[in-house]
Design a protein that fits this description.
With 304 residues, this protein is an alpha/beta fold. The chain folds into two domains: 1-43; 51-301, Alpha/Beta hydrolase fold, catalytic domain (Rossmann fold). It has eight helices and nine strands. The chain has helices at residues 3-41, 50-63, 120-125, 142-157, 172-183, 233-237, 260-269, 295-301; strands spanning 68-74, 77-84, 87-92, 104-107, 129-134, 165-170, 188-194, 243-248, 274-279. A nine-stranded mixed beta sheet has the order 1-2-3-5-4-6-7-8-9, sandwiched between helices. A hairpin with a 2-residue loop joins strand 2 (77-84) and strand 3. It is globular and about 110 Å long. The termini are far apart. 34% of the residues are buried.
């Protein structure tokens, strides 16, 4: 066999080898592509993270008793709204693991106002839950106080929050807070009051419409009416619930002399623990304090 023949045979073998390798690699590529398609078709759905599972569990417990109204993002935290009797109630979950003992705050009224000045967002970031129930129509009358207690029983017994609430009482919320705490003192851990309405006398908004059900039983003098929170100071002081009181010295809506200052002096004289901060140049608003807005409030709730 000549050298030319050998060269031709080598070229033929080489070409056959190259063709075989191409076919081999095409087969491998086809198999891999087929495997990817199958894998995508049989892919296991992503599992919810821990926070989502906790929200789902909380939602399920609420839904077992009450109608869920909505779920949304509230200042970066998950909020669930639900129907509690004829009211809208809601609970906000922390974005971290719940703090030890599952503590919580409850803004008694105006829960959407001055939120960044109440300390609740700071506490949510520390593992507190936060709640409210929109019951302004009742103005904390006697019947509504019992429903507040029923709401708290649900939060404690079904949602396993701490047995005692930390109340946030701004303006009308102070009225709600003191009346509720006086009737159910064992339900309360601490109370933060801010420019609280504690008596209807000289209240700038004390029209019949403004005071709701209270318009049906107007006394001769609100200042000595035993139903007014300002006159509950001595009774509440028996339980020594710590109170933080912030108020504006120039408040024309809720005059300090017969609201904050009158209540504080009586509560302290009766042996109650109360921390008072007068914001001399402030009026009724804004709530909270400057420049840090919330440090005094969060430290109070944390027991510092």
């Amino acid at each position: 066999m000549s050298i030319v023949d050998i060269g031709q045979r080598c070229r033929i073998v080489t070409n056959q080898y190259i063709l075989a390798m191409k076919q081999f690699f095409l087969l491998i590529f086809s198999l891999l592509l087929s495997g990817q398609v199958c894998a995508s078709q049989t892919q296991i759905p992503a599992q919810p993270d821990l926070a989502e599972r906790k929200s789902n569990a909380l939602r399920e417990v609420i839904a077992s008793k009450y109608k869920i109204i909505s779920e949304d993002n509230w200042y970066g935290f998950n909020r669930i709204k639900f129907q509690f009797h004829n009211w809208t109630a809601w609970i906000v979950e922390p974005n971290v693991d719940p703090a030890e003992g599952r503590p919580w705050t409850w803004t008694m009224q105006w829960a959407e106002s001055f939120v960044d000045r109440t300390g609740v967002l700071d506490l949510l970031s520390m593992g507190y839950h936060h709640v409210t129930v929109e019951a302004f129509d009742k103005r904390a009358d006697d019947q509504s106080l019992d429903l507040f207690a029923e709401y708290q029983n649900f939060l404690v017994n079904d949602l396993h929050l701490a047995p005692k609430a930390n109340l946030v009482g701004m303006s009308w919320g102070g009225f709600f807070s003191i009346r509720y705490a006086t009737k159910y003192p064992s339900n309360i851990n601490r109370i933060y009051l801010d420019a609280p309405l504690l008596v209807f006398k000289d209240f700038a908004q004390s029209t019949l419409d403004a005071i709701g059900p209270w318009a049906d039983s107007i006394p001769e003098n609100w200042l000595i009416d035993s139903r007014m929170p300002v006159n509950m100071a001595e009774e509440l002081a028996k339980y020594n619930i710590p109170i933080l009181l912030l108020y504006g010295g120039q408040d024309q809506t809720v005059p300090p002399t017969i609201n904050s200052e009158f209540f504080a002096s009586r509560y302290k004289a009766a042996g109650g623990t109360i921390y008072v901060k007068k914001r001399g140049g402030y009026g009724h608003h804004p709530h909270g304090e400057d420049p840090d807005k919330t440090l005094t409030i969060t430290d109070f709730f944390l027991g510092k």
